[in-house]
């Protein structure tokens, strides 16, 4: 959960001092309050595992052992063999690809994938969205580390169109599509639009790579199985902790020759870790436990989103936006016409006072008097009815009005 949104928060006084806290100290305290509220809440829409205790996270390994996901009498993995190899094979099968390589991070996996494709195409230019994860959250890693040259097909809050790809004014060796596009609101194109975009890239002799960190939950929107979705791309990256609640890790899947080269570059990047069996076992547990439930989460996210909209209307909030509507995945955005410090404090107070977390992510300032946050619906959220959501909205708006009047 990013805290960059809270830079504009109001000053919070230290009990023993009159000097206001710095922005960094305010962000730190608010994050601590959010985590504490999550920990103490009785009702949440999602309970992310990464906020758990060490004991709770280790229990996931006990669960994996109980599920009999792998032969635990097998010798532990060394530099990517054993259970890591078994995980690679399983994910390659799920995505319908020849082979797969396990990486400690998606940042590394995608740099390696695209530099391998650059060697094959002879063009280091990567066409991608201006809001794509490498551009927003990776400190220019493509250009600073991997010799790639990112160019932006569009900056609109949607996926690129076929015409934008076809008419782009310079050559590129690879088109990278983030599915769903998180910073635009976890949005996806239609299935027909996605096919047209891929075909447009191929017309330009470019390869297509899917940033599929959250691809797992796209099947409901597309109405297609994972294998068919991934089959549109030359290579695909998927994450194990964003949707599947694993400890970390990622897989790059594609042709055998690409994966073989990727493993060589993985070694050079320092990603061939000595032993990774806890992370691999947690990934296998996530595939077993969470993957089959993701369609249920997506369906209920649409119930929650509609109830949020109706609840804010009933509470008299002058304007609100649920984006996209209906949600394309089990995650979406909520926009409200208030300063970010006001909605942040109202959300924290509600969580602390009622033990119900409606908005547990940080709020981003999108302009004067405009704030946005992300909402995630997971297993815990399935317990909420539409009426539960509307009740929580009313409680939130009551505190929102109190903050506005201060």
TrEMBL record:
Keywords assigned by UniProt, alphabetized: Pyridoxal phosphate
Highest taxon listed in the record's lineage: Bacteria
GO MF term list: L-allo-threonine aldolase activity
GO cellular component: cytosol
Domain Aromatic amino acid beta-eliminating lyase/threonine aldolase intervals: 80-309
One Pfam entry name: Beta_elim_lyase
Names of required cofactors: pyridoxal 5'-phosphate
The keyword Membrane is assigned to this record: no
Disordered: region residues: 1-30
Record has DNA repair as a keyword: no
Compositionally biased spans, kind Basic and acidic residues: 8-17
InterPro entries the record matches: ArAA_b-elim_lyase/Thr_aldolase, PyrdxlP-dep_Trfase, PyrdxlP-dep_Trfase_major, PyrdxlP-dep_Trfase_small
Gene Ontology biological process terms, A to Z: glycine biosynthetic process; L-threonine catabolic process
Family in the record: Belongs to the threonine aldolase family.
PANTHER family for the chain: L-THREONINE ALDOLASE (PTHR48097:SF9), L-THREONINE ALDOLASE-RELATED (PTHR48097)
Protein's recorded name: Threonine aldolase
